Amino acid sequence: MPFDIARVRARLPGRRIDWFASVSSTMTPAARLARDGCSSGTIVGADEQVAGIGRHGRVWHSEAEGGLYVSMILRLGASGGALPVMMLALGVGVRDAIAEVTGLAPDLRWPNDVLLNSRKCAGILAQLEGEAVIAGIGINVNQTRFPQEFELLATSLALEGKPGVAREELLVAVVNSVEHCCKILTEEGSAAILRMFSCASSYVEGRRVNVKQGAEVIEGVTCGLDPSGFLLVRQDNGRQTTILAGGVRPV
Asked: What integer pLDDT is reported at residue 170 of this predicted model?
């Protein structure tokens, strides 16, 4: 079903929302708008991405009208803290929006993968453009199948028993929830976001995981987040390692 942009604009008045039938990636026009000085809260979305981008340069499968594919430009200033904590705030915001709209209870895998039944239903990419943060958000909504390379890793709201979720309602919830988390970050600081993420994630503490970092694979049990928002893993030899980046997977 075509996206009803008028419905969204009525619910989110006073902000710029650019919507495309198809685009390579919503991050590209969003970056251009950020460079041109657009207001915080500006949204770029599309019914389809033909070259959707995930973290670490991976492909994000973006079936036409199958998901919610948007980029938000956020300007938090110095009070917004560092990008790693911002990534956690975005994860909490998207997770809470999905829970609000569907009644499901998504999990968060560090740094901000949103999971349902241990499969990824939403992913978030954040990049800096000058003083702005561009948050690229992809949520699998209506897909009933995925390409073979993703079928064991991905899921959608429809596959998890919530068919027919309106993408318009989901976008409104995502925008409000993300901006709420950003407000907490700017007003209460990083520690508040770390607490929120830790409460929402089964991966932060006591989870046995492995993390691929280049040619090295680190395996151990998670033992919290450091003050900068990085994941701590205690290896079997007792060494505690700070995970700065990499794909975290359960063992």
From this structure: 98
